[in-house]
Amino acid sequence: MMKNYFNEHAQVLLTTFGAVFLALMIGLLLVYLTADDFSDALVAFFDGMFGSTYAVGASLNRAVTLALVGMGFVFASRANLVNVGGEGQIAMGGIFAAAMALYGGVSDLPLGLAWILPLIIGTLAGSFWCGIAGVLKVQRGTNEVISTLLLIFIGLLVVYWSVQSDSLLRKPRTNSSTLPESAEIPESTMLPYLMDDSSLTLHVGLLFAVIFAVIIWILLNKGELGFRLRAIGLNDIASRRAGISAKRDMMLAMFVSGGFSGLAGAIMILGEQWYVTAGFSSGYGFDGLVAGLLARGSVPGVLMAALFFGFLRSGGLTMEMMSGVPSAVVYIIQGLVVVFIAGASRFADKRD
Amino acid sequence: MEEQIALFIASMIRLAMPLMLASTGELVSERAGVLNLSLEGMMLLGAFFASYGTYVTGSPVMGILIGVLLVLPVALLQAFLSVTLRANQLVVGIGFNLIALGVTTLSYREIFGPLSRVSLPGFDPVHVPWLSDIPFIGTALFSQNILMYVGLVIIVAIWFTLTRTSIGLAIRAMGENPRSADQAGLSVFKYRYGAVLFTGAMAGLAGGFLSVGDIHTFTENMTNGAGYLALAAVIFGNWSVWKTVGACLLFGAATSLQFQLPGWGIDVPTAWLLMLPYILALVAVAGLVGRVEQPVALSIPYRRN
To answer: A211, A70 in Cβ contact below 8 A?
Structure first.
């Protein structure tokens, strides 16, 4: 029994690292083929990841966003629900947090409430957005993959609408060249930095990611809720007979899952971007989704995957700026990781 | 007024066409029990390869053919993962879409350079004599490019094959009860591979229609969710060919309203109109407009004992 358990875990780790390694090698080959100067490109890549305290801070902040989205994904997946709509939930979280920070009258509140309240509103907005898919799933049996996907496009267009419309978030037009974006949020509503060092722009979002990781890990692995969700995930009908209210728990799983992405969106706006532009979520939701997939249900796995993709994306962007290798290479690497793991996962259980 | 309505109908059909090609292609796969979330990616690859083919050969017909042919190996790989390896079809689809986005963006920048907008030769409209003079719908229906008519013929052929032939019966059996189909001596693997390859070809054609047939250039991520809309159209259409086509026309109409409404003096935020197809799709997949009856074995890999 024990031996089998270890074998299984070793196999999962082996395929995961194997998939990541193989995908990275292919990515490297692509960089080699497209870069004018391979070594310059690699230097730029590492500079983007670790080259300066600023780069490290930016990568870690990015990893925080991905970790939150990924944790949301893992939480829902415990109940066998697939929330692929992180991108849309980030969008909703971001605009509601910005609206609260700008027009909610919170900027003079003490004790950090100036930024805590917008974070809460953003979390609720993301939660609501994913909750729609949860309600449809429970009430109408709608496939949550399709509904969360469609909600991404609607959410992104809500952002577009809100920065285009003067009666919503668009900043007052002072001249004809005023861009369609929101005003900058007041300084008191920006997330505080963790360190005084002005070059390290690491904000309190990191603490949230760590604290929530611990809470989610405990909830899923030690608590009754984790057990119930797993039971629903394994067998919806049997668990209902055992008195577990599947509908309520499935809905809860979706609301919580979306809340994480909503918080991620709020953190992006309050922590780094400070104003809303159309498309501000720029693929973070998909990166987080891949982190969640890669983690295969494990919370520590999400943190590792989020760090990995956070640094990878930062490196890719710097490489694009410095050496002209499109950061689209990162998409290819991510896609390959996902496909390799999906392909290998059935190899593993072929033995039974 | 007549001219405006004719314009509206023409633009609705033009916008619906890639969705119709992709969704009726996907319909075949889904009736055989395989879900291709990778439709978006395969469309994007088709759009890129067709542009590249047209750019190199100078001929839009060759370009579209090259686009369709080059998507086939991708579809084959997807069939290998979904059917042979029995991988999770949703996860495989998400992975393929990321790869397609990366590959097309990378290749586009390498070949054409970032932000370049190479104008590709397209198809001249074909005016069907007499019919194109019918008021309102004449120019909309009978002065379109040749690809439109080819597409319509293929869609009719799909409907005929699925509902009126033994091949269609076998395909549907794969999605309803693969075990009995297998026991009756039909190869589940062969049919499912064939269905996925066909879907790939249709997605490639849909992408080619979008880039070469309609926009005359390729832009990064130009499908921008069209593949997901096509998937929603299949659900909206309750896995029937004509209802799926109808769903695509509805999505096309919603999208084309953004160009028409300002001309009619109606001022609505563009975002609402852009949102409309997705909201309609969401309402549809929620089963708020009739019952959803998907093939029983959809997205369940078949395993022979």
So the answer is: no
Tell me the CA distances in angstroms from A256 to A115, A252, B107, B253, one per residue in order. 21, 6, 39, 36
Question: How much of chain B, in percent, has pLDDT values that exceed 70?
Answer: 90
Q: Torsion-angle region of residue B125: left (phi > 0), alpha (psi -120 to 50) or beta?
A: beta
The yes/no answer to whether this complex scores an ipTM above 0.95 is no
pLDDT band, very low/low/confident/very high, at B193 (cuts 50, 70, 90): very high
- Chain B environment of A342 (Cβ under 8 Å): 81, 87-88, 91-92, 95
Give the pLDDT confidence of A167-193 residue by residue, as tens digits.
Answer: 777 777 777 777 778 777 877 778 778
Query: pLDDT of A4-26, one tens digit each?
Result: 666 777 777 888 888 899 999 99
The nearest CA of chain B is from the CA of A49 a distance in Å of 20
Measure Cα distances from A214 to A193, A209, A299, B290 in Å: 22, 9, 8, 44
On whether the CB atoms of residues A140 and B290 are closer than 8 A, the answer is no
Q: Kindly calculate the radius of gyration of chain A based on its CA atoms and give it in whole angstroms.
A: 21
Q: How far apart are CA A263 and CA B97, in angstroms?
A: 26
Predicted confidence (pLDDT) at residue B99 exceeds the cutoff of 50? yes
∠ Cα B202 B204 B205 (to 5°)? 65
Could you read off the pLDDT of B34-48 as tens digits, one per residue?
A: 999 999 999 999 999
Domains and their CATH numbers in chain B: 2-285 (1.10.3470)
Distance of residue B194 Cα from the nearest chain A Cα, in angstroms: 20
pTM confidence score: 0.89
CB-based contact, B298 to chain A, within 8 Å: no
3-state secondary structure chain A: CHHHHHHHHHHHHHHHHHHHHHHHHHHHHHHHHHCCCHHHHHHHHHHHHHCCHHHHHHHHHHHHHHHHHHHHHHHHHHCCCCCCCHHHHHHHHHHHHHHHHHHCCCCCCCCCHHHHHHHHHHHHHHHHHHHHHHHHHHHHCCCHHHHHHHHHHHHHHHHHHHHHCCCCCECCCCCCCCCCEECCCCHHHCCCECCCCCCCCCECHHHHHHHHHHHHHHHHHCCHHHHHHHHHHHCHHHHHHCCCCHHHHHHHHHHHHHHHHHHHHHHHHHHHHCCCECCCCCCHHHHHHHHHHHHCCCHHHHHHHHHHHHHHHHHHHHHHHHHCCCCHHHHHHHHHHHHHHHHHHHHHHHHC
Contacts of A129 in chain B (CB under 8 A): none
Cβ atoms within 10 Å, residue A36: 9
Residue A54 has pLDDT above 90, yes or no: no
**Residue B185 in 3-state DSSP?**
coil
How near does any CA of chain B get to the CA of A192, in Å? 34
Tokens 């987080």: give the residue: A288
The DSSP secondary-structure symbol of B84 reads: I
- Structure tokens that stand for B281 in this block: 């799709």
